[in-house]
Here is the input.
Amino acid sequence: MIPSNSLPWQAKTWQTQLSGAVTQVQDLAQILGLSDNVEDWDADPTFPMRVPMPYISRMNHGDPRDPLLRQVMPQLAERIDAVGFESDPLLEASTAPIPGLLHKYQGRVLVIAAEHCAVNCRYCFRRDFSYAKHRHDTTFPMLDYVRDDASIREVILSGGDPLIMPDERLNKLVASIEAIPHVKRLRIHTRLPVVIPQRVCRPLIEILVNTRLSTTIVAHFNHANEIDKDVAIAFAALRQAGITLLNQSVLLAGVNDDDVALCDLSEALFEVGILPYYLHLPDRVRGTSHFHVDTDTATRLHTTIQSKLPGYLVPKLVREIPGRPAKELIATDSLPVISTRIDPFT
Ligand code: SF4
Here is the structure.
C-alpha cells in the first residue's frame, strides 16, 4: 500500500502535463515514429486532437494500430455522416432542468462541472454538447435545484472532466454540495487520472477525504495498456484514502472488441484496486460510426468473458436509451451448467 503523502510528484505537475498536451497529428506521429500521412488519419479535424504526454508514453512506438492511439488520433472516418448517428443521441439537452445540471434518473443528478477534458477521445458522446449553455460561476447556481429536491441523494460530477477544475474550485463545489443535508453521496466520473495520473495529488485527496459525503470515483479505462506504474501509484493513493473505485469502459471497435483485451483489462483494473462496473455499448454519436460494435457481437463477447473471469471481474453490459429510468442491462446468453456443485471460491 502506498501512502498518499508519498505520491512521487508535486501538485503542479499535472497542470504542466495538461498544458503540454500534443494537439497536432504531425507531432503525435513524429513522437511515435510514424508517418503523419497514414491514409485514414485526419490532420484537420473539427473536433480537435488533444493528448497528454503521460498517455502517449504508454503507446507502442511505430504501431499505427495501437489501441491507445486509436482512441485519440483523429480519423477521416469521423467525417462520415452515418445514418442513425446524431449529435445528441441521448437527448441530453431535454434532461437539463437548469443550466449546468442534467436530471435523468431518480435520486441522482449530474452536474456539468467542466467543459474541457485532458484528452479528446474520438468516440466522445459529448463532442457536440453545448457547454456554453451550461457555464456557471463559483456560486454554482445549479445546486439550487438540488436543494429544492429532497429526493436527490447523489450528485455526480461530470463534464467535460470534473477533475480538470483547479483544486480550489473543486473544493468549493464539493463544500457546496455537502452543505445540502439530503445529499449523501458524491460520484466523480473522470478520465483525467487515466491520462495524467499525476492529477492524483495531495490537495485532491484532501478534498475527497475531508468531505462527509461518501465518495466514489468512476474511472474510464478502456484497455489494459492504459495502466502503468504511475497509474497504479495514483489509484493506490485514492484507495488508501477510502475512495470507492469503479471503472466504466466503452466497447470500441479496434480498441477492445475482443475477449482477451476485455479480460486483460478486468485483471489489470483489479490489480490496481478498481472494480469493473460497466461495459457500455458506444452511443450512436455523429462521427463515431467506425467505433461501433453491434449488440450481437457485444453479447457474444460478454458471454465469453463471463466464462473466463470470476463474476466480480465481469462488468455489466449496458446501453443508455433516452427516457428510460435507468441504463438498460443487455441480457447475455446463459452459460451452460456443467456441475451442480457450488464452488465457494468462485
Ligand atoms: S474524457 Fe469523456 S467527456 Fe472527455 S473527451 Fe473523453 S469521452 Fe468525452
Observations:
- The pocket of iron/sulfur cluster is lined by residues 117, 119-121, 124, 126, 159-161, 191 (CB under 6 Å).
- The CA atoms of residues 88 and 129 lie 7 Å apart.
